Amino acid sequence: MDNVTDSLLDTYLFETNSLLERLDELLIEAEQNKDFTEDEVNEIFRSMHTIKGSSAMLEFNSLMEIAHHIEDLFFYIRENGMSALNSEEKNELFNLMFKSVDRLREEIEKVENNEPLSTNIDSFIEEINDFLSKISGQGKGQDSGSDADAAIVSASVSLTDIPGIPDSPWCIRLFFEEGCGMENLRAFMLVTTLQENGYDFICSPPDVETNGETSQEIISNGFYLGFKDEDQAKKAAVIVAGSNNIHSYELIENALSGEKEKESKEKTSGAAEPDTVKKPQGTQQPGRQQSSAHHAPVKQNLISVNLSKLDSLMALVGEIVITESMVTSSPDLKGLKLDNFMKSARQLRKLTDDLQDISMSLRMVSVSGVFQKMNRIVRDMKKTLNKDVRLTLVGEDTELDKSIVDSISDPIMHIVRNSMDHGIEDSSEERIAAGKDPQGEIILSAVHTGNEVIISIQDDGRGVNTNAVLEKAKRNNFLTKPEEEYTKKDILALLMEPGFSTNAEVTEYSGRGVGMDVVRKNIESIGGGVSMTSEEGKGSCTTLKIPLTLAIVDGMEISVGNSIFTVPISNIRQSFKVAAEDVIFDASGNEIIRCMDEFYPIIRLHNLYGIYEEVCTNIEDGILMWVEANEKSFCLFVDSLLGEQQVVVKPLPAYLNNFGIKEYGISGCTILGDGNISIILDIASIYSAVIHS
After folding, report:
1. Which of 571, 625, 566, 569 is nearest to 600 (CA)?
2. Alpha-carbon distance 131 to 123, whole Å?
3. Which residues of 266-276 are buried (b: 16+ CB within 10 A; e: fewer)?
4. pLDDT at 369 exceeding the cut of 80
5. Do 359 and 314 form a contact (C-beta atoms < 8 A)?
6. pLDDT band (50, 70, 90) for residue 270
């Protein structure tokens, strides 16, 4: 694909996915209210019309066909009202619409994965048509629009000012729908279609394929197609009538003789079309006035930006921050009294901080999109499992980095499915017997705390039987210490071990032995953590701790010998000095320290990374840093603390992944103000590499 096509495809995917997400929200709300409002009917009609038009332009025929027939269905509903449907037909409509959104989403996923689209959707189209026939009282297979010629009207008008057109005996003048965008490309697609069908004609403006400025000319004056004879013009008008995004068109007979020209314009818009014309689009737009009328530009307060451009901006801002730090920390400035320079440096630091904040905010999006998707999951599972459950959303306006929001959708979906499948009781009677509300509840909440967002998925179901979990873990050799030493917290953590499942049988939604371990792995891959709490008979809660962004980290710089490392501040609980007599040893000779009435292992960073030159080996000469990640705590022994600093995270070169360095606590690196490189530590991976090994 060329750059223009790539850009069109990105815009199409963004627009269509946004419309489908909005449709899911709308359908969930409408089904709860057991009816569509007039506004909701109009919104669905407009959404399907948009999907139909943009899909046709990019020649995604399956998407265009599905959207076109749903549009026809809602054109009928819009004209006749929801009151024309009984309760059974309304339920059938809801199910049909959910199924339609799923089919559209399946086709969109194929486009995203560069897979061929479905070529046989006849049975699904027939299902939509049968339902339309049922509610409209038409016979099966009857076409709602069979006479497109009814839209063709002849007129006589002067065309002397249109380049090339005065020599054409017949002309079609058309306008695209207001605000549809890319009018020149839509005109080019129409020209291509007519040429493929063997029509001989000229068009004005002629350079619509290569000149984007012709869009405004088409908006103001229309697009002209000139033909040599009446028969071709009328047949071409039928194709124009069936094209997408056409607001109005007219068939014009050119006055070539010396007779007085007569002007009689009759435009065919969606609002004025007879019922026999198969063109419901545009019915809500006002008819156009004189063709010479100019339209004021529409003010746009929002634009969509390719995420790769934001990535490039963040990388550039990071380089600016690093360069600013290198300039102000230059060793050449030591000992010099430069008041004006320092004043300018402080102003530069303020500006770079502001620039950093703004560039980060551009990538921040609310979690509402992910949360709203869970409404659909709960709705479908309610019907499949025959459970009465409501989903309550809290804090859906909380914002996260776009890349992180995309990463948490699947983990949250899996947890919600678990809660629905074997968290909530199987029947209302079981809940009533337990003294609960007959309707179960799942609460999905998000709250911003400092540099992270806490997302919790809580249900009021049966909870986890920890004795059963421990017994199964023992039976399947999951235990790593004596059974009696396992706390409730330890037992629940077993549920996130690879291959561990408490389900006795496989269901559509869970029980395959691949579940919470994948959730934990996905969350940890973005620097987050997962924990669980549960009380048998009262419910469970899974908590996700998610960093706001992966691009910038508040870190503590530490030294080990001549090496510098960065530990994320969010992982640090305390730093302290100890005496040699405070350190004790376990049965294997490993060092342990007591903190807050608990015992924690000591990991000497120089031993882990093989740093033996100019390092502190005496426990009293260095410093202990008490760190924690994913409910796992230990103490790092380092030489010294260098100070807190906000650092820009740089990914490691891809080839280094072949050495598995991420498994040994190295998550990335950063460039310091003096030009040195600091390794950013992953505390959770260090624990797994040393304590678990």
Report:
1. 625
2. 12
3. ebbbbeebeee
4. yes
5. yes
6. very low
User: What is the pLDDT of the chain when averaged over all its residues?
Assistant: 80
User: In this structure, are residues 637 and 604 in contact, taking their beta carbons and an 8 Å threshold?
Assistant: yes
Between CA 356 and CA 554 the distance in angstroms is 13
Cα–Cα distances (Å) from 511 to 380, 503, 506, 610, in that order, read 18, 5, 5, 43
Q: How many CA atoms lie within 13 A of 485 on its CB side?
A: 4
The pairing of beta strand 677-681 with beta strand 563-568: parallel
Neighbours of 130 (CB within 10 A): 12
pLDDT at residue 243 above 60?
yes
Predicted confidence at residue 152, as pLDDT, reads 39
What lies within 8 Å, CB to CB, of 641 at 6+ separation is: 556, 557, 558, 575, 623, 625
Measured in degrees and rounded to the nearest 5, phi and psi for residue 114 equal 60, 40
Report the DSSP beta bridge partners of residue 560: 563
Strand partners, 269: 248
Residue 92's identity, in one-letter code, is E
pLDDT digits (tens, 9 = 90+) for 117-162: 988 888 888 899 889 888 887 544 444 443 333 333 434 445 666 7
Quick one: pLDDT at residue 6?
A: 67
Whether the predicted pLDDT of 46 surpasses 70:
yes
Q: How far apart are CA 672 and CA 559, in angstroms?
A: 13
Does residue 557 or residue 212 have the better pLDDT? Answer: 557
Distances (CA, A) of 604 to 163, 573, 578, 627: 82, 17, 14, 13
Closest listed residue to residue 25, CA positions, set 393, 444, 419: 393
Residue 68 identity (one-letter amino acid): H
Residues 6+ apart with CB under 8 A from 531: 542, 543, 545, 630, 631
Nearest CA to 227 out of 276, 194, 192, 193 is that of 194
Whether 47 contacts 19, CB under 8 Å: yes
pLDDT at 512: 38
Give the C-alpha separation, 393 to 444, whole Å. Answer: 5
Tokens 């963004």 belong to which residue? 14
Following DSSP, what letter does each residue of 67-115 receive, concatenated? HHHHHHHHHHHHHH-GGGS-HHHHHHHHHHHHHHHHHHHHHHHHHHTTP
What pLDDT is recorded for position 260?
35
Spatial contact of 263 and 72, defined as CB atoms under 8 Å apart: no
Q: Which residue has the higher pLDDT, 263 or 112?
A: 112
Residue 497 has pLDDT above 50, yes or no: yes
CA nearest neighbour of 42 among 227, 284, 211: 284
Query: Could you tell me which residues come within 8 angstroms of residue 491 by beta carbon, excluding any fewer than 6 positions away?
Result: 466, 469, 470, 473
Q: In this model, does residue 221 exceed pLDDT 50?
A: yes
Calculated CA dihedral for residues 404, 405, 409, 415, nearest 10 degrees: 80
- Scored b (16 or more CB within 10 A) or e, 578-591 reads beeeebeeeeeeeb
Token pair, residue 161, equals 């000012």
Closest-CA residue to 616 (of 607, 625, 626): 607
pLDDT of residue 587: 80
Q: To which H or E segment does residue 58 belong?
A: none
Written in H, E and C, the secondary structure of 169-211 is CEEEEEEECCCCCCHHHHHHHHHHHHHHCCCCEEEECCCCCCC
Q: How many helices (H) and strands (E) are present in the chain, helices listed first? A: 18, 24
User: Tell me, what's the pLDDT at 450?
Assistant: 64
